[in-house]
């Protein structure tokens, strides 16, 4: 009787080896008839019949990956498995050690060994534009399992039996990132190649990798790259990413328009931005951004960046700039002296500012709506006392977190409780101790208990589910109002804001009472 207990497979095997008495007796008679049989051989009779009874539990069977979980090495020495992974990343094409399959307990890991490896490769790709190509090995079966395009290419009705396939429109790094996902089930994205990887994933219909690329772009989206990503999102037909880009461009319009990436967009994207009704920017900033784009576009078209050529590349997009809505000083000192306008256009716009009978203009004369800021008020009441609230250069601070991405534009602050007064305010916004922005400005209070807005130079993007620290250092001779009955959670439109005390607060402000009664934001 042999009892085997194999741990990890959710089963116990109990095996019986049975020798039937009748069979033993018959075998003994047969051996006794043979003259050359010795007594020693007759004593070692092999079993002629056996029965196996297997008892199984009702537990679910585990996969190999569950039985053999990948463990981190105990020390810093590189294991054989890690060496093979690094080898494949570098495409060294070193012949694996004998029985290399035994190093990997799961089919996923064994399959990953083939990534970028010439071993058993039955197709090669020459990837990249002329002069920058890279030859990469592939395995038709693995590729066909990971992509319907590769399946049609290798096993479809119109499949071509080629040993080498040229792909000039995909960057080698992006193609390798896609292959790594197909072979290793790993997503390895970088900021400088994610757009090219998204293009490859779209071309070869690898939807999960494409979705990961879009998520990566959404999380890394900022005013610096929003315009470029807007152009690319339209090209790749990613409406969610397009919407996120518009949110950033609308709220942080001046930063987006002044970024280098704005000059890299195509003409169609330029028109859509200039036409945008909710663009939260001064029109002079829009005008200067359009001229910067025109100068770079002249270089792309190999034209001299003259006034005539700039106007030529702008075309009808010039009239989407709402020049008549500029402040008169901005027009007189900026657009009117830029040379981009004709003499008649300049005269007509000056008349538009000053004359009772305004001339007809080709330019849009209606101001943009921009964005309406929202205010999150965290106190249920306010008060004042004969000795509060005083400022001695100390910091009033509070921490907050939101459940949706917003853009903090400034704070609402209390004013004097003893009549009209002027205050100097240094406002600051931090995340995990890192200063995101700060601004020093003055505001005038009229003696009421109202709050008065103090703005940052540009709105600041706030990510959800992360606590930020809002701080202010006020300087003023008069006592001010302060908040009472503070709330730890406030619902403001579709945004939920949570508050907690900050260790930076040295002047008494906390959740229940104090200063910084309002957060002003765009959502």
TrEMBL record:
Alphabetic keyword roster: Cytoplasm
Protein name from the UniProt record:
BTBD3 protein
This protein's GO CC annotations: cytosol
Q: Does the keyword Cytoplasm apply?
A: yes
The BTB domain extends over 121-191
The record's listing under PANTHER family reads: BTB/POZ DOMAIN-CONTAINING, BTB_POZ DOMAIN-CONTAINING PROTEIN 3
Could you tell me where this protein is found in the cell?
Cytoplasm
What GO terms describe the biological role, i.e. biological process, of this protein? cerebral cortex development; dendrite morphogenesis
Q: Does the keyword Cytoplasm apply?
A: yes
Q: What is the lineage of its organism?
A: Eukaryota, Metazoa, Chordata, Craniata, Vertebrata
């Amino acid at each position: 009787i042999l009892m085997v207990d194999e741990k990890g497979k959710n089963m116990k095997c109990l095996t019986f080896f049975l020798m039937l008495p009748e069979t033993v007796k018959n075998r003994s008679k047969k051996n006794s008839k043979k003259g050359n049989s010795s007594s020693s051989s007759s004593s070692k009779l092999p079993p002629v019949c056996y029965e196996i009874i297997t008892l199984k539990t009702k537990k679910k069977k585990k996969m190999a990956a569950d039985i053999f979980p990948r463990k981190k090495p105990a020390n810093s020495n590189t294991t054989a498995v890690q060496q093979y992974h690094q080898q494949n990343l570098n495409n060294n094409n070193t012949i694996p050690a004998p029985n290399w399959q035994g190093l990997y307990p799961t089919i996923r890991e064994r399959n990953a060994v083939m990534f970028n490896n010439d071993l058993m490769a039955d197709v090669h790709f020459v990837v990249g534009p002329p002069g920058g190509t890279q030859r990469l090995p592939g395995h038709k079966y693995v590729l066909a399992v990971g992509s319907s395009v590769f399946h049609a290419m290798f096993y479809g009705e119109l499949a071509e039996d080629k040993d080498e396939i040229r792909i000039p429109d995909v960057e080698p790094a992006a193609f390798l990132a896609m292959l790594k996902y197909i072979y290793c089930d790993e997503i390895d994205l970088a900021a400088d190649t994610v757009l090219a990887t998204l293009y490859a994933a779209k071309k070869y219909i690898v939807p999960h990798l494409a979705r990961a690329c879009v998520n990566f772009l959404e999380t890394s989206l900022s005013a610096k790259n929003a315009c470029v990503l807007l152009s690319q999102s339209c090209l790749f037909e990613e409406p969610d990413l397009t919407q996120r880009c518009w949110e950033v461009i609308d709220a942080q319009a001046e930063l987006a328009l002044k970024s280098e990436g704005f000059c890299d967009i195509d003409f169609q994207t330029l028109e859509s931005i200039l036409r945008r009704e909710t663009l939260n920017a001064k029109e002079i900033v829009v005008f200067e951004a359009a001229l910067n784009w025109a100068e770079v576009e002249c270089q792309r078209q190999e034209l001299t960046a003259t006034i005539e050529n700039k106007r030529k590349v702008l075309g009808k997009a010039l009239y989407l700039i709402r020049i008549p809505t500029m402040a008169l000083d901005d027009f007189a000192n900026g657009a009117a002296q830029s040379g981009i306008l004709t003499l008649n256009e300049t005269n007509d716009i000056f008349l538009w500012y000053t004359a009772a009978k305004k001339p007809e203009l080709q330019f849009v004369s209606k101001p943009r709506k921009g964005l309406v800021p929202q205010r999150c008020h965290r106190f249920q009441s306010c008060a004042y006392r004969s000795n509060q609230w005083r400022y001695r250069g100390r910091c009033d601070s509070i921490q907050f977190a939101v459940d949706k991405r917003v853009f903090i534009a400034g704070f609402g602050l209390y004013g004097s409780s003893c009549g009209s007064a002027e205050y100097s305010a240094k406002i600051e916004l931090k995340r995990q101790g890192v200063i995101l922005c700060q601004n020093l400005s003055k505001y005038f209070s009229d003696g009421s208990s109202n709050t008065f807005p103090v703005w940052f130079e540009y709105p600041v993007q706030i990510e959800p589910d992360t606590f930020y620290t809002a701080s202010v250092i006020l300087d003023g001779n008069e006592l001010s109002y302060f908040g009472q009955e503070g709330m730890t959670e406030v619902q403001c439109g579709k945004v939920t804001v949570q508050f907690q005390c900050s260790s930076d607060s040295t002047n008494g402000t906390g959740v229940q009472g104090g200063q910084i009664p309002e957060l002003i934001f765009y959502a």
